[in-house]
Amino acid sequence: MDVSRRSFLKTTALIPALGAMPGVSDAAAMAGAVRPKKPAVVRGAFFYPPLQVVLDGKCEDDWHIHNWCTWPGNQYQPEQQQKKFEHELERISQGLDVKLMIDSAPIYTDAGISTFISEVAASKPDALLLFNFWNSFSAKIVPILDAFPGPIILYHPLGANHQLPPEKFRTAPRVQYIHSMENFDAIERGLRAVHAMARMKQSRVLRVSGQVTAESDEPAPFFNCAVHTVPADQFNNLFDETALTDDLRKLARKVHAHALDVKDLADSAFDDAV
């Protein structure tokens, strides 16, 4: 059975529960323990004006003097669309180790944008998730893209029948720009990438090398996870000196039993792994 990247990423969110498996003692759980990791925090917001603001001529765009609902118009029903997207976000985030912090009220003023930027700077989330439901608000979102140094998922479900998508949205660094009507799979891919990056930053990698003579620590490029390098002779000697206890054997059997698939691995390989 092939395991997709989606299944793998969602499965990694459940690995810390290994120690709670029936039949695995505390000692064995500690031997295979995963250090608790914090979920990735994703701050989000929707951008569109309430209908009454537009009808009162108070919308902060060039069409306010005409009391005009710019593309896609009020028939898009942004409030209902927000509810639909919130429902899909709840579904998508199940099984992912992410904490979604989405503003319930839409942002539609420059002052609201400034407040949002200040709050993001203070709270330092791992990523942003922005939904632009109002075409004339594209320029309002640009300061957020410039201010936030991390990854941004920018969803722009407005179509492009009469104009190109904004240049800034298409070319801004660290931005996953989704210009599509209801592409929830694309949103899920973005959130899974945020999940993976947050997990990697909190992970440790053991590198066994025959080309070094002393232990060392350094961060891995891009993922910025800790890499601990040990000389191969030192690792092999320690491996040979480590006795395989009954608790470790039980842990190896549990790992084997709960594997999604096993290819060309003998039981001894699981014993060696633990």
End-to-end CA span: 24 Å
Low-confidence stretches: 1-32
**Element-level helix/strand string:** HHEHHEHEHEHEHEEEHHH
Shape: elongated
Task: Give the integer mean of the pLDDT values.
Answer: 84
Q: Give the tally of β-strands.
A: 8
Count of discrete alpha- or pi-helical segments spanning 4 or more residues: 11
Bin the helical content. Answer: 40-55%
Largest sheet: 5 strands, parallel
Strand numbers in spatial order across the main sheet = 2-1-3-4-5
Descriptive labels:
disordered N terminus; 3-stranded mixed beta sheet; alpha/beta; 11 helices; 8 strands; single chain; 5-stranded parallel beta sheet; 274 residues; 16% strand
Structure description:
The protein is of the alpha/beta class. 41% of the residues lie in helices and 16% in strands. The strands form two sheets. It has a five-stranded parallel β-sheet, with helices on both faces. The model is unreliable at 1-32 (pLDDT under 50).
Write the layout of secondary structure elements.
Elements: H1 5-12, H2 26-31, E1 40-47, H3 51-55, H4 78-93, E2 98-102, H5 110-123, E3 127-132, H6 138-147, E4 152-155, H7 167-171, E5 175-178, H8 184-201, E6 204-209, E7 216-219, E8 226-231, H9 232-241, H10 246-257, H11 267-273
